[in-house]
Structure to design on (414 residues):
């Protein structure tokens, strides 16, 4: 994109290509979603494409950003605002409910791309890493608010506990894809919450 | 295969097709590894293929079985024999060392297939579910041995704790694919071990 100024129509075309690519990547994976497919389904020409994106990797970077917005929006407002164990449990309840009502095949669009991009060079994974980092930062910020209020032990490592939440979530979602139910997610998230509750300051209600 | 009796050469051909398919699925995913690719690289004809396999799904089932054998062999002997917290920690050390030395892009071949098969009908996922079930059963058996020896609280739910181990492992491996290091795996596994250690019977050394 560089410093290009897009017309309203250009913005809409670019957005349509990204949304079409996101759908195709979700259905067929990063390598299965060919540029021909993406252009065909978004009714865009090859020259239009190269006007908006340097290459397919640049488009995939935009797909990751779009899916990240969607993933975070689906967890709002709890993900970004929790400041107590009780509110963290409400976030957990929301994720479980979402996973139970969605098509079981859905999983996490970012988790799906972790394997799809794993064989690609590091720059291709940079956007995905930025998304996981942002996700972990939301957890870490909430845990630090719990520390500030005195609910969480000052010695607890909030960055590590945030990674525990993210790993439990990704592992539970992955196993649920195959089992076709929400149970692995529930068990994994409850482990992570229990682990965090183990750092609740003495004298406070624990898990 | 049914009740077909294969010659030694037939067994070798069938095995070669499965091993080639396993490599291609690892590199390109289930849908990216086309039958043409698999036959070309294993120097097998289409009629040979249909002599050994009903269809591509049947072949993928055999790929899952092969990868499962490899995954379990890589964790031997600890996975199948641990009977104490100390031995479970040795299993954890082994997995971490393996993951640190392997190409970072490797992850878990079974975890990779969870997303690849998620949109397929349930029968296509049955072999993968059987593999995850077998994996969890190994954990559960070890945890039950810890219960029998008195190390683990009799009230601990070994089936749930086994799922915790598997979810932490899969989540940590998935996040490590993107970060390119072993840290997410270490944090996730240590959460699971800590969680299990929380069920160690009173009076025993905990985590």
């Amino acid at each position: 994109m560089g410093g290009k100024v897009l017309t309203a129509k250009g913005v809409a075309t670019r957005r349509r290509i990204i949304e079409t690519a996101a759908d195709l990547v979700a259905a067929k994976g990063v390598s299965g979603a060919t540029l021909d497919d993406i252009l065909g389904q978004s009714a865009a020409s090859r020259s239009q494409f190269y006007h908006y994106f340097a290459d397919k990797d640049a488009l995939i970077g935009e797909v990751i950003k779009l899916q990240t917005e969607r993933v975070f929006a689906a967890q709002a407002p709890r993900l970004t605002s929790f400041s107590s164990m009780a509110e963290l449990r409400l976030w957990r309840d929301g994720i479980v409910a979402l996973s139970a009502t969605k098509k079981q095949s859905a999983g996490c669009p970012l988790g799906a791309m972790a394997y799809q991009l794993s064989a690609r060079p590091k720059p291709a994974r940079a956007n995905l890493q930025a998304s996981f980092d942002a996700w972990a930062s939301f957890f870490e910020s909430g845990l630090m608010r719990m520390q500030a209020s005195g609910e969480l032990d000052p010695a607890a490592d909030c960055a590590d506990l945030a990674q525990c939440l993210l790993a439990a979530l990704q592992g539970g979602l992955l196993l649920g894809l195959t089992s076709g139910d929400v149970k692995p997610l529930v068990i994994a998230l409850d482990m992570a919450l229990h682990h965090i509750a183990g750092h609740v300051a003495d004298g406070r209600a624990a898990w």
In short: The two ends of chain B are 49 Å apart (CA to CA). Residues 25 and 33 of chain B are 5 Å apart (CA to CA).
